[in-house]
Structures are given as structure tokens and as C-alpha cells.
Amino acid sequence: GREPAPSRLAVAQAYAEHGWDLGTTDAALAAWVLEVAELTQPDEIVWCDGSRAEADRLFKLQVANGQLIKLNPEWRPGSYLARTDPKDVARVEARTFICSESEEDAGPTNNWRDPAEMRAELKGVFAGSMRGRTMYIVPFSMGPLGGSISQLGVEITDSPYVVVSMGIMTRMGRRALDLIEDGRTWVRTVHSVGYPLVDAEGIHRPEVAWPCNDTKYIVQYPQDREVWSYGSGYGGNALLGKKCFALRIASQMARDEGWLAEHMLIIKVVSPAGRAHHIAAAFPSACGKTNLAMLRSQLPGWRVETIGDDIAWLKPDASGRLRAINPERGFFGVAPGTGESTNRSAVETLWGNTIFTNVALRDDGDVWWEGLTDEKPAHLIDWRGEEWTPDSGRTAAHPNSRFTVAAEQCPTIADDWEDPDGVPIDAIVFGGRRATNVPLVLQARDWKHGVFLGATIASEQTAAAEGTVGALRRDPFAMLPFCGYNMADHWGHWLRIGEKLGANAPAVFQVNWFRKGPDGSFLWPGFAENMRVIAWIVGRLERTADAVDVPIGRVPAQASLDLDGLELSEDALERLFDVDQTAWLAECDLTEEFFARFGGRVPAALTAELEALRYRLTR
Ligand code: GTP
Ligand code: SPV
Ligand code: MN
């Protein structure tokens, strides 16, 4: 529990004594900001209103400080390039902590720390961390303002880059603060880059292009609904509405309140018959969510519209259907591999008003990254700020370089993407990056089997987090780095939601765009051609596509997957759907080992699914 709040008068007096601006009528918010300010000791406090003028001022300030490069407005109006410190380029999972009361509640897949001990440790870490800096108070809404599935938060940060990014990624500013002042609940989040400009002795040091600290902490207190982040300015480490709140904290809130917070894209698919279906899909970081969310169909009659590309909040409604919102307002997407031929929608979205981070700078003041164009520019400044030519022997953009842009700029955004009550979800898809074993697509036999598929997803690691790229790891529900409580309890929660939904439960599928042939190349062309797989999934919902049972699920019956006009050899097709009995029995053994890590906490229904799978494989 928190200490009793000081009186309003005492708080107002303290602001006045420090010469700080008291920017809210909400007593709890004012007292909390004061507490954080007295700890971190900023020069001034700025309450963000989310206005255009405020963003313009902060962009100008960062350009003047050398923290952002303004791109040539002729090519990229209203857009900027940020280059991070080379040691601050991705989420830091080893420094991400879940501080629940008991270690069991965090589970074996999270780094647990005792909340009281961590609070004491962070007091020391944050003490004076904003000296010489401005502290920004950023009120925001995850989801449409006032929506039935939405939630409010406040991020305190000393990074203007974070403020302008939160302005794109969330509904940020005065209107969110109004809702807080109306008395709605909100989540507390605190962020410092950990680079004070004045030390304890009063000695000044110069500003740098990307302030950060070698010591990093990404700390969640799920019970207190609170986040503290230190030492990084990067994406999921610093934009605290995103992974820290909308997944780690929200997953805990969702478990307590009977809904789901998931690492999922949301799309609306319109079939040739004109019927709309909504699909939510969970793939691990850098495994194709943004690309699928913006898919441009080339299959006659089919259309995909974008609702969200990274996070979904799903809640059973009064009629017993599962409805979902995208809690974000923008995209923080992977740049490399995004080009006209792979993701035209994204390229068009990025016409202007975009913050690029760690991509390359062209001589004409525009940006470039690997995959934007087939031909490489003859000369660039790379993401580290160094001269680059095609024979430099290194990539010009960092593999985890990203764009930050408002969703409303996306040409394929759905009309109802901001529906405060969300869209009804008809199908749930799990995926990963698997060179072997996992077929292009399969349908789960039922909800329980679907939960088993989600729980046992493995994927080859990407550059989105620190670690060995390519190493195969379990990433259940694509939530390994994002579940704020015991992962096995998360599976139990999904099983309970399924029981509640009953016959209204969405159908569940698994996909894999990344299976490779013996020569090491992808067997499936992917990107726009993934429409064929989505069409089969919708065909299953509309009962127009046939499936056949294989031991691991239901795969498309002969000719039910539309391959018309696709150059795909018989051999490749066979390999895409091959179910190797020996390999799958070995997967079962690995799943058993994985489940064993959770002690007795794995739901019995899932161990039963594992045994049923073994039986079907050996029968
Ligand atoms: P996060 O933002 O980290 O959560 O990533 P994401 O899941 O949104 O992944 P994204 O769509 O940005 O894709 C990541 C990388 O995978 C990019 O380099 C894409 O070009 C590549 N990719 C996406 N879809 C496909 C596909 O169907 N086939 C292949 N081969 N690559 C793909
Ligand atoms: C991911 O890693 O899943 C991302 C990028 O979407 S970040 O916001 O850094 O988490
Ligand atoms: Mn993501």
C-alpha cells in the first residue's frame, strides 16, 4: 500500500517552494508527481497538453540540441531522424523485472524481484536522475478516450523524444488529463534516461545526442499497476504505454478483471461475398505482425483493412462475444524489409510526420534502409552517423531500426479502428519463425487445442531484443517478454475465457511464413501472398474451405488453399505441410520439459493435450 497522501495545501506549497508548475486539479496526481520530482530533482516540470504547438516546440528543441535531424521536407515533411547510442537499440529483457509479491506469481519465465527491495534500490537509482533536465508529465489514454475497454496512464519522463513519440503512439495530453481529473483510475509510469546534466556536487556536463545509461531497469509492479524505467530511451523500454503498461501491467489487470491483453495485430478481412471477419494474430517481435496488419491483397475480391499492428485488448461483451481494441494510436514498426514490394501500405503511411530511429540518412536529406528499394544508394550516412557505401560490408540501417507514425496515416486503416467498444473477433492466429516442422497453416481442433498451440509456440529470436539472433526459444502466445504474471496462469486464464465464450469462442489457427527448404531459402513467398492463407482461414469460418485431420491439427484439404497464379513447386508445397513424426515426437519431449519448468502450475487440460498429441502421432 501507498502512504497517506499529503494535504492539498502542503502539496501546492511544495510546488511553489521548488518553483515548479502545478498543472492539475487532481490531488493524487499532483502528490505523486511531487514525490517523483523531489526524488529525481528536475529543473522544471512541464505538463504536456498534446497540442501541435507543443510537439513543434519539442521537435525544434531536439533539433537544436542535435538529438534529432530534420529530414528534407520536400521528401519527408514533418519528419525526423534519431540515432540512438549504439548500446541502446532494443528491448533489454535481462534487465526487465516483474515485482509481484511472490516469486511464484511472476513465474519461471520472468525475472522476479521482491517489490520492497526493488523500490529501495530504485530510490537510489532515480535519486537526482533528472538534475539539470525538464520533467515532462505525459497523461495518455490506451484506446479511444473514454472507451469501454480503454485505460488511462501518466508517464513522467525526462526525454522529449519520449514525449513526441507518446504523442504519436497514444491519445496524449489535455483530454486524457481531463478524464483523470474526472476521477477515473490511471496507471503510474516513471521514466528517466539516467543521464543527469548536473551531478550531486553541482558540476554540469554537456548534453549528448542520445542520453542513456549503461545500467538499465525496466521494472513492473503488477499489483500496484506501476512502471519504473531507467537508463534507456528506446521504444519498448521507454514508451511506457506500450509493452510495459499495455502488456505487462494490463495482462495482470486483464486476469483480475476477466479480459485479455495480448501481443496481437488486428485486421478486418472482407471476403468476395462482401462479408467482414475480424482476426487477431500473435507473432513474436519482428515476426510479421505489422506486415500482416497492412497486407494488400492481390487475390481477386479479397481486402484486408488495418486495425492494429502490435497489441490487442480483448474483452467478452454483454452478448458473450469477444471484442477487441487496438490500445495504440500509432505504429512503432520495423524499418528493414519494409518496401514497395513487401509492404506498400507502410511505405505510403510513412510519407511524412514520422520519427525514424536508427535508419540511414541519404545525401538528399531523406531516409533509407535495407529493403526500402532494391537498389542501394551509392552513398549514405549509416545509423551510427558514419559514411557508408554499398561495399562497406555492413548494413546501413540497424536491423531493429524503426518508424513511429500515426495509424490514421495508413491508407488501409479500417473505418471502425477507433470504435470504443472494439470489433468482434472471429479468429485467433498464433505464429512464429520456424525454419522446420511447423506447417504453413493449420486449424486447432477446438479452443483447448488452440490454447495448447499458443502455449507451445517456439520462434527463432530476432533483433527486437538483445540476445542471439536465430536461436530457437519458446515464446508462448508471443508473450514471453510481456506477460506480467506466471505464464502457466496465463494459459489457465485463456482456458477460462474459452469456457465463458463457449460456442461464441473464435476459431484458433497457427501459421508459419518462415519454413525453409533444404537450400535454406523460404519455401513460401510470404507478404501479400499470405492473403491465400488468410482466405483459407476465412473459408473455414464461412464453412466454404475444407480441412483434413493430421496429428497436429487440421490442414487445408487438397485444392482448398487457393494457389492459383502462384509459382510454387509440388515439392515446396509438400514440404510446407510435411508433418515429420519423429521431429514432432521430439517436439513433444521438449514441450514436456518446458511444461516441467512451471512445476504443477500447467493446467491439466494442456498436459492432456500433450498426451493426446503423442497418441495421435504414434497411433
Ligand atoms: P514487432 O514490431 O517487433 O512486434 O514486429 P512485427 O511482428 O510487427 O514484424 P514485422 O511485420 O515488422 O516484420 C518483421 C520482419 O519480418 C521484417 O523484416 C519483414 O520484412 C519480415 N516479414 C514479415 N512478413 C514476412 C513474410 O511473410 N515472409 C518473410 N519471409 N518475411 C516477412
Ligand atoms: C517488439 O519488440 O515487440 C516491438 C518493439 O514491438 S518495442 O516497442 O521495442 O517493444
Ligand atoms: Mn511487438
Note down, in words, how this protein is organized.
This protein is α+β, with helices and mostly antiparallel strands. The protein is 29% helix and 21% strand. The protein is built from 17 helices and 32 strands. The strands form 7 sheets. Strands 1, 4, 5, 6, 7, 8, 9, 10 and 11 form a 9-stranded mixed β-sheet that branches. A 6-stranded mixed β-sheet has the order 15-13-14-26-30-27, sandwiched between helices. Helix 12 (447-455) runs antiparallel to helix 13 (487-501) and helix 16 runs antiparallel to helix 17 (604-618). The longest helix has 17 residues, at 241-257. The radius of gyration is 24 Å and the shape is globular. The mean pLDDT is 97. The chain binds guanosine-5'-triphosphate, sulfopyruvate and manganese (II) ion.
How many beta-strand segments?
Answer: 32
* Overall pLDDT confidence: 97
Task: Please report the distance between the alpha carbons of the first and last residues.
Answer: 56 Å
* Cofactors and ligands: guanosine-5'-triphosphate, sulfopyruvate, manganese (II) ion
The structure class reads: alpha+beta
Largest sheet: 9 strands, mixed
Helicity, as a percent range: 25-40%
Radius of gyration: 24 Å
Fraction in beta strands: 15-25%
Tally the helices: 17
Low-confidence stretches: none
Shape: globular
